[in-house]
Amino acid sequence: MHEGALSRGQMQAWALNRYYYQSHIPRKDAVVLSRSDDQGFRMAWRKRLIDHDGDGNRPGGVEKWLKLVEATGLPRIQAVRGDGILPATRYAVDAYVQFVSTRPHLQAVASSLTELFSHKLIALRMDRLREFYPWMASGLDYFTGRLTQAPEDADFALAWVVKHARTREEQDAAHAALRAKCDILWAMLDALFFAYVNPAWPPPGAFHPNHVDL
Amino acid sequence: MHEGALSRGQMQAWALNRYYYQSHIPRKDAVVLSRSDDQGFRMAWRKRLIDHDGDGNRPGGVEKWLKLVEATGLPRIQAVRGDGILPATRYAVDAYVQFVSTRPHLQAVASSLTELFSHKLIALRMDRLREFYPWMASGLDYFTGRLTQAPEDADFALAWVVKHARTREEQDAAHAALRAKCDILWAMLDALFFAYVNPAWPPPGAFHPNHVDL
What is the rounded distance in angstroms from the CA atom of residue A22 to the CA atom of residue A186? Predict the structure, then answer.
């Protein structure tokens, strides 16, 4: 993606599949919130619900991702319905929600820490998308918002985990939770690569890029 | 309570036990929110998190209930820790959170509809508390807030349930969910009555009113 090597169809597949992830983030965060008996934590975490679902006046991240989908040329309804998303995308996202629902709360919070590393990546990605995929320029609001939201969220979560992971076992569990989240993101990307890059074998029922575009 | 027949110790037991319920309401609502794939629903339901946890400037319902606890003469830390609450209170509240976590989303929403009947009750209760328990007057902010919040919440939830309970089975299930919630509230009150009114046998470990007050 960052080298400009992807077709429009491949970008569509990415935006479409990633929408399933994005649309589950506020639900994931509500689960994390629901599991805390600490009102200060709940109030801080509520910011994420607003960031992703919007506040009625300003659109949230989910809506902005739909704009990104539309910028690739796909209709928003296809993303909303999840038509043609990879089963592997669904499994990985559902595993994430399941993880934060069932693991100790500390691990649920720690699993969000992948955002510690997203600031540089987002800035780079916006540059490269503008350079190589100028037809997507109208869909980049999501990233603009995350440039400030993600570091705020990650800083809060990191401080919270550092404070509450007191024993070596808790620290190891927090570390493992962050790795588990990396596994989830990685699995989503591998499935996309397999289906749409190499060997480019989408499974039955999955989105097929228009071959003219490829 | 509405006839002025309760001692200060009995009012303390009520406020203390009910705090366990109140403090779980924003967590219960976050569970309900987390289970919806409808962004409009999630945004509307988020109001409840703000109403109960506060917004950083204005205190929420949980904090206001602590003021009520303090107005009865108990220290807030006792409520926050749940020291001396009845096991039956804990079981009932936990059953409510479990209910909204595991039942179909429609039933989770329908279980909140007990608030349809709370407006008149709250208005009456405020009158009677002011009349018979004037020493509690500084703790009634919770009820003032709920006078407007509860009907708004109930109206939204009722309209939502009416719209989404399409089959007879769904309608029966919504009705059963409301009854299940009534059972939960009823069980909490019966346990309080048994422990602190008649026969007034608090179980081991439970709060004991000061006998001078009784």
Answer: 15
CA A159 distance to own-chain centroid: 22
Judging contacts by C-beta atoms under 8 Å, the chain A residues touching residue B27 are: 33-37, 42
Q: How confident is the model at residue B123 (pLDDT cuts 50, 70, 90)?
A: very high
**ipTM of predicted assembly, 2 dp:** 0.79
Q: What is the pLDDT of residue A214?
A: 43
**pLDDT per residue over A173-209, tens digit each?**
999 999 999 989 998 998 999 999 999 999 999 999 8
- A145 in helix, strand or coil? helix
B90 contacts chain A (CB < 8 A): no
Pick from B18, B65, B14: nearest CA to B197:
B14
Distances (CA, A) of A173 to A16, A92, A96, A116, A190: 32, 20, 16, 18, 25
* B120/B148 Cα distance (integer angstroms): 11
How confident is the model over B14-63, as pLDDT tens digits?
Answer: 999 999 999 999 999 999 999 999 999 999 999 999 999 999 899 999 99
- Cβ of residue A210 closer than 8 Å to a chain B Cβ: no
Q: Residue B197: phi, psi to the nearest 5?
A: -120, -65
Chain B CA closest to residue A32: B30
Q: Given this model, what pLDDT does residue B187 score? A: 87
pLDDT band at B9 (very low <50, low <70, confident <90, very high): very high
Residues of A in contact with B43 (CB under 8 A): 53-56
Residue B101 burial by CB count (10 A; 0-12/13-18/19+): exposed, middle or buried? middle
Count CB pairs under 8 A between chains A and B.
66
Segments in chain B forming alpha helices (H) = 8-34, 39-53, 61-71, 76-81, 87-102, 105-110, 118-132, 141-164, 168-196
Chain B 9-28, CB below 8 Å of chain A: which residues? Answer: 23, 26-28
Q: Is A44 on the interface with B (CB under 8 A)?
A: no
From CA A119, how far away is CA A117, in angstroms rounded? 6
pLDDT over 50 at B214, yes or no: no
